[in-house]
Amino acid sequence: NKIDYPNAPFYGDVNILNENPLVFDIPIENLTWTLAVIPENGWYNNKAFYIFWFIIIIFLSLFIGILAFLLIYTKYIFKKQATIDSLTKVYNRTYLYEYAIPSIIKNKKVNETIAVLLIDLNDFKIINDSYGHKAGDEALKITSRRLKAICDKYGFVIRLGGDEFLVLLKLDEIEVLGNIINSINSITQKGFSFE
After folding, report:
1. 75-90: b or e for each residue (b if 16 or more CB lie within 10 Å)?
2. Burial code of 3-20, b = ≥16 C-beta within 10 A, e = fewer?
3. Peptide bond before 9: cis, by omega within 30 degrees of 0?
């Protein structure tokens, strides 16, 4: 039961219909009232205004994206610094307790062998006493690189402190362990040059 809409408005100016109004149908009793509204000053139709806000939104999105990236990257760097030995660049004791052991326990497969090797460099103090701490540091770095080259495929090399290393290996075949131990014995007896 509409009353001659839009030709005979009950209230207001019929020209409002030419200004793209929001139109609502409001049923009251047996009648349906149609309400057409526009902002008091008309629709703001300035292209520059929309472009300005579009650019602001783009910049805000970029800013928030960069902030999120920096937060994630900073967290990654802090985690890395907390779990990597600064001298040798292998994992440290924190990594052992917080990540390596829980990971091995959680992801252990059936028929998988877990090998734990404790490596203590014999007579390491002699290098420090005879050639200085720089030479000792270089010996630790070279030993770490050599251990990683052998063990990275199977597990983790962890510096416990001083001249002590722990190697955690996950092996499908126990026979591989003998080869790894022989390789480790070989590299720990191998010399290195230092200037």
Report:
1. eeeeeeeebbbeebeb
2. eebeeebeeeeeebbeee
3. no
Q: Which two tokens stand for residue 135?
A: 């030479």
Question: What is the tens place of the pLDDT at every residue in 183-195?
Answer: 988 887 777 776 6
Alpha carbon distance 94, 109 (integer Å): 24
Please state, in angstroms and rounded to a whole number, the distance separating the CA atoms of residues 170 and 156: 9
Q: Kindly state the tokens that stand for 130.
A: 């005879």
pLDDT in tens, 89-148: 999 999 988 888 887 777 777 667 788 999 988 888 888 888 888 989 999 999 999 999
- Residue 136: count of CB within 10 angstroms of its CB: 22
